[in-house]
């Protein structure tokens, strides 16, 4: 079963990005940073979700991100599916903080139970076929959404219609230039139909 080891975000200012992530989220070795001046504008076509086990943890992560300099795209709210909000880091990456739980059942912490990368695709069916041909197994698939089975992978992965993903993140769907993200896995090196780069896992931590 495919394994996503980590992701690398490409940022304008390495020092600022490191300071933000050190203060906002404890992602250990699942998140890497590298400096770039590759042009980019608007929606970069993805977001990363941090899933926690209870609302209090989501609130704590959200508040920590905002205090560290994130921009609020969607304030934390309760909904039929659970509790969550969306922020944009100073480097431009969009982070969704969420839980399906309705109430707290333990002391509040900054614990993250799961990280999920959702890529916005212009043609979900074509992208789904592309990834299946590279060894990924579909877990759930309905309409414009695909969730792949990632087994023990520390990072989950799915596809969503680009316009729908942008709406979910609270931004306009338009965007050009670099996605500013690389996915590290055991699938080898390639670029998907939407221009997202996949690379081998970094040798050094």
Order of helices and strands, N to C? Answer: EHEEEHEEEEHEEEHEEEE
In whole angstroms, how far apart are the ends?
A: 23 Å
Strand content: 35-45%
Chain-averaged pLDDT: 95
Spatial ordering of strands, largest sheet: 5-6-7-4-8-11-10-9
Task: Characterize the overall form.
Answer: globular
Number of helices: 4
Task: Report helical residue fraction.
Answer: 10-25%
**Assembly state here?**
single chain
* Unreliably modeled segments: none
What's the β-strand tally?
15
Characterize the biggest β-sheet.
8 strands, mixed
Q: Write down the Rg.
A: 16 Å
Structural class: alpha/beta
Describe the structure.
It comes from Promicromonospora aerolata. The protein is an alpha/beta fold and 205 residues long. 21% of the residues lie in helices and 40% in strands. It has four helices and 15 strands. The strands form three sheets. It has an eight-stranded mixed β-sheet. A five-stranded mixed β-sheet has the order 2-1-13-15-14. It has a two-stranded antiparallel sheet with strand order 3-12. Strand 14 and strand 15 form a beta hairpin. Helix 1 packs antiparallel against helix 2. The longest helix has 14 residues. The protein is globular and about 45 Å long. The model has no long low-confidence stretch (mean pLDDT 95).
Identify the notable features of this structure and list them briefly.
40% strand, globular, 205 residues, 8-stranded mixed β-sheet, alpha/beta, 15 strands
């Amino acid at each position: 079963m495919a394994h996503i080891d980590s992701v690398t975000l490409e940022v304008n200012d390495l020092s600022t990005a490191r300071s933000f992530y050190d203060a906002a989220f404890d992602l250990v070795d699942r998140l890497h940073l590298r400096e770039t001046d590759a042009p980019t504008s608007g929606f970069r076509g993805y977001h990363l979700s941090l899933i926690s086990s209870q609302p209090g943890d989501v609130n704590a992560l959200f508040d920590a991100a905002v205090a560290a300099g994130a921009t609020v795209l969607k304030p934390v709210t309760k909904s039929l599916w659970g509790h969550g909000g969306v922020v944009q880091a100073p480097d431009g990456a969009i982070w969704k903080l969420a839980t399906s739980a309705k109430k707290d059942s333990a002391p509040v912490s900054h614990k993250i139970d799961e990280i999920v990368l959702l890529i916005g695709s212009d043609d979900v069916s074509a992208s789904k076929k592309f990834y299946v041909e590279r060894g990924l197994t579909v877990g759930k698939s309905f309409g414009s959404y695909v969730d792949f089975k990632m087994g023990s992978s520390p990072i989950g992965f799915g596809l969503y219609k680009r316009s729908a993903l942008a709406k979910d993140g609270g931004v306009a769907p338009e965007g050009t230039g670099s996605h500013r993200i690389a996915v590290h896995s055991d699938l080898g090196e390639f670029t998907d139909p939407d221009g997202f780069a996949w690379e081998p896992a970094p040798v050094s931590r």
